[in-house]
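Re: beginner question about structure tokens

> Can someone show what the tokenized structure looks like for a real chain? I only ever see the sequence side.

Sure, here's an example I had lying around. Input first:
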Amino acid sequence: RGGEFEYNLMIMLVDAYREQKDFAQVLHMLKNMQMRFDGTPESKRIQKLMEEIFQKLYLNEKEDVLSPVKAIALYEEFKDLLPPGEKGAKIVRRLADRLVAMDLPDLAADLLDDQLRRPVGNKERGLITTRLALVRLLNKEPEKAISALNLGEKYSYSDKITAQRKLIRAKALADLKKVDEAVRTLEGDASLPARQLRAEILWRAQRWEQAADALKTLISKPQPNVPMTEQEAQRVLDWAAALRLAGRSVAPPRRKQGTRADHHPSGFGALVEQRTRKGDLRAEFGRKILLFR
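And the corresponding structure tokens:
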């Protein structure tokens, strides 16, 4: 069994690996030390040091010290070091975000599911169910997204999270072809994300009259001598296309020149006609309005 000299020597090696930012080796060394010094006063110090290093690795706000692959591998090996409560829940949510960014939503969902089986507080549990619902939605599992939201219905949330949960539910319902229910979910919400999502839902459902009305709410009032931005021009084209598909007349906007609609050789009408033959609305109405921290 190791003595004080051996303990100090091994701690010096641990510090050297920490300076090199080889944190996998650090944790493995400390794990071996814990077994070697089991039952001694040093054992508690080693455990505390492991917990501190683990938390610093996963709660560093300034930078991600570990690559995504190393982060998930070390987590799986040392998840017994996960702190209870809010800190632990935050680590899991950040890891899930990184997995989603790597296009690994299945692994992110498994991570969040596992966290729900742990003893966490109501606030953390509610945030986890919200994140899990979003991951399920991005993974094209709308039924599971709604189930995750339902798990967290009994908890209270900030206005921001409440609004995000509403968006997730509406999008999931729309993906299940429950268009009327999805639109009702967004009733009374005049926020930009809700208006964008409402327009997307109605466009995809090919409810052109309603889609045109929803798109109109996204178009800002023209300002004298101010040209349209590309985004504004696209919104006008989407709105005009929905009007045409609904069988309603379309008049070109009166705005100072400066957008591609003004310079198109065939004019506004040709652009609208071209737009009616394209698919869904731009990504502005898609997944990015649902992402949150």
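Each token stands for a local structural state, so reading them left to right follows the chain. Residues 41-58 form the longest helix (18 residues).
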